[in-house]
Amino acid sequence: MPLVGDTIFALSSGRPPAAIAVVRISGPRAGAALEVLAGRIPKPREAALARIRGAENDIIDEALALWFPAPHSETGEDVAELQLHGGRAVIAGVLAALGKIEGLRPAEAGEFTRRAFENGKLDLTAVEGLADLIAAETQAQRRQAFRQLKGLLGERSESWRARLIGALALVEARIDFSDEADVPEDLLGPALATAKSLHAEIGQALADAGRGERLREGLVVAIAGPPNAGKSTLLNRLARREAAIVSPFAGTTRDIIEVHLDLDGYPVTLVDTAGIRETDDPVEREGVARAKVRAAEADLVLWVVDASAPSVRVAADGEKQTVWTVRNKIDLGGQNDLASNKNEYPQKNESLFIKNEPKFKSVDKFFDVSAAKGTGLENLLKALSQHAENYLGGGEPALLTRERHRRVLQNAHAALGRALDEENGGREDILAEELRSAATALGKLTGRVDVEDILDVIFRDFCIGK
Ligand SMILES: Nc1nc2c(ncn2[C@@H]2O[C@H](COP(=O)(O)OP(=O)(O)OP(=O)(O)O)[C@@H](O)[C@H]2O)c(=O)[nH]1
Ligand SMILES: [Mg+2]
Questions:
Q1: Which string of DSSP letters, residue by residue, matches 445-457?
Q2: How many CB atoms lie within 10 A of CB 239?
Q3: Beta strands 219-224; 300-306: pairing state
Q4: What is the C-alpha to C-alpha distance for residues 61 and 365, in angstroms, rounded to an integer?
C-alpha cells in the first residue's frame, strides 16, 4: 500500500472533453501545489478565479480554485480543488504540472475515499454506500445507496455494538469482582436480557437481507429458446436499440449480449443468448453452452418460441427457476395454437432444455407477441416491471445490501445464540467470550476492528479520483 502522507491528485470528474473538469489534490502538500499552479491559496471554502500555470510557467487555463484546509475536507486532509475547462489538453497540462511538484503523485483507485475512511470521515458501510451511489442506475438503487452513505446501517450496527459492550462489561464485572461483597448479585440478568433482544433484532435484519442485495444487483432476465425464434429481435425491441444482430439464419447469436433497463425505477438486466440446439459448429456449440449457463443463473427466463413454426418439444423434469413462455411472430398467423396445444410448451416442473441441463421451477405465464411489429410487448413489459417490483421489494429500502453485511451479522447472531444457550449452565466465562466475539463481528461491519483484510476488497471497486 502506498504511503499515507504522500500528496495525491487525480481527475475526479468524468471522461473529457466536457464543459468542466474537476482535479482534486489531497495531502500535506496540497496548499503548496495550489500556490504553484494558481499563484495563491484562496480563502477556505470560497471559490476564487485563478490563472493556472503549467510546468513551463505558461498560462494553461483560467479556473475556479477551492481550498479546504484539514480537517474540514472530504478526506480529512488538506484538499485543493480546481474546476477547469474540460478539454483534454487543459487537463493533461494541469496533471503534468502537478506531477512535477515534489511530494505529489497520481492517486490510485479509491484512494481519496480510503483516506476519508482512515481519517474517520466515513465508516466502511458508508464507503460501500458511496460506491453504490456512484454505480446506481435507477432511483430505487439510488435511494438504497444514499441511506447507506448517510450511515443508516453503520449507526444501527454501532448502537448494537455499544449495547453488546455494555452487556459484556456487566459480565466481566461479575467475573472480576465475584468475591467482593458490594458487587450486586444480579449483573447477569440484565446482560442476558440485552443479549436476547440483540439476538432478536439482528435476526430480524438478517431476515430482510436478500432484498437489499437483490436490488443492488438488479433482476437478471435471460432470453433463451430455440434458434431463429426472434430472441435478439425481442431484446432489441425491449431495449429500444439495436444491441444484438438479427438475421434470418438460425445460429446468429453466439456471444451473450446484455442490456440494462430501468423499469419503473427497478434495475433489470436483459440477457440475449444463443439459440439452443445440437450443433457441430464448435463456435456455436460454445455459444449454446454459455446460453445454458446464463439461463440457469438468471432470476427469470423468457423462453421464446416461434409461434408459426412446428414446435420442438424440449422438456424434462426439474425445479429451480421461473420461466415465462413468449410465443413470438404471431403476425405470421401461428399454426401453433397455444390454447389447444399447450403440451408443446414447457409446463410446470419441466426443464426447458434437452437432456438434464438447467432446471426450472415453473412456467407460469404465457405471452403472445410479435417482436418485429411490436404487438403484445406492452403487456410483457408491464409484467416484467411488476415482477421486478415483487422480486426486488418495494417499500422501505433494506438495511443490508451486501453479502459481506450478511456474513458479519450471521457471525454476530450465531455468537449471541451460543451466549444464550442454556447448555452453558450459566458459565460466565463462556458468556463473556461469546459476547466479545459478537462485538468483534459487528465491529467488522463499520471497520472498527480487523479491517485490513476487508479494505482491499472494498476499495478495489473504486475508480481513480474517487
Ligand atoms: N414475421 C416476424 N419475423 C420475426 C419476428 N421476430 C423476429 N423475426 C425474424 O426472425 C428472424 C430471426 O430473428 P432473430 O432475432 O435473429 O432470432 P434469434 O432467436 O435471436 O436467433 P439466433 O440468434 O439464431 O438464435 C429474423 O429474420 C427476424 O427478422 C416477428 O415477430 N415476426
Ligand atoms: Mg439471436
A1: HHTSSS-HHHHHH
A2: 17
A3: parallel
A4: 61
In this model, does residue 319 exceed pLDDT 50?
no
Q: Which of 232, 233, 373 has most ligand 1 atoms within 8 Å of CB, for mutation?
A: 233
pLDDT tens-place string over residues 377-406? 999 999 999 999 888 876 677 788 898 999
Is the pLDDT at 2 greater than 70, yes or no? no
All domains of the chain, ordered by start, with CATH?
7-121 (3.30.1360.120), 126-208+400-459 (1.20.120.430), 218-392 (3.40.50.300)
Kindly give the distance from the C-alpha atom of residue 237 to the centroid of ligand 2, in angstroms, as a whole number: 13
Residue nearest to atom 30 of ligand 1 (CA): 329
CB under 8 A, 24+ apart: contacts of 64-71 = 65/34, 65/38, 66/42, 67/31, 67/34, 67/41, 67/42, 67/43, 68/44, 69/31, 69/44, 71/119
Nearest in space to 330 (alpha carbons), one of 366, 380, 375: 375
Residues recorded for the chain: 466
Cα–Cα dist 35/78, whole Å: 13
Euclidean distance between CA atoms 178 and 172, whole angstroms: 10
Q: What is the pLDDT of residues 281-290, one digit of tens each?
A: 999 999 999 9
Tens digits of residue pLDDT in 337-368? 444 444 444 444 444 443 333 444 455 688 99
Could you tell me where the beta strands, DSSP code E, fall in 27-58? 48-53
Is residue 202 scored above 90 in pLDDT?
yes
Smallest CA separation from ligand 1 atom 12, residue:
228
What's the pLDDT tens digit per position in 426-438? 688 888 889 989 9
Burial of residue 408, with CB atoms counted within 10 A of its CB: 0-12 exposed, 13-18 middle, 19 or more buried: buried
Q: Would you put residue 110 in left (φ > 0), alpha (ψ -120 to 50) or beta?
A: left
Cell of 137: 442506475
Instruction: Report how far residue 329's alpha carbon sits from residue 368's, in angstroms, rounded to the nearest whole number.
Output: 8
Give the Cα separation of 234 and 259 in Å (integer): 12
Q: For ligand 1, what atom is nearest to the CA of residue 228?
A: 21
Q: Would you state the pLDDT for residue 292?
A: 86
**SS3 label, residue 149:** helix
- Grid cell of 398 as nine digits: 433494506
Q: Which ligand is nearest to the Cα of residue 233, counting in written order?
A: 1
Output the nine-digit C-alpha cell for 94. 494541469
Range 421-447 average pLDDT? 85
Helices 403-420 and 209-217: crossing angle, nearest 10°? Answer: 170
Q: Closest Cα partner for 260 from 272, 274, 273?
A: 272
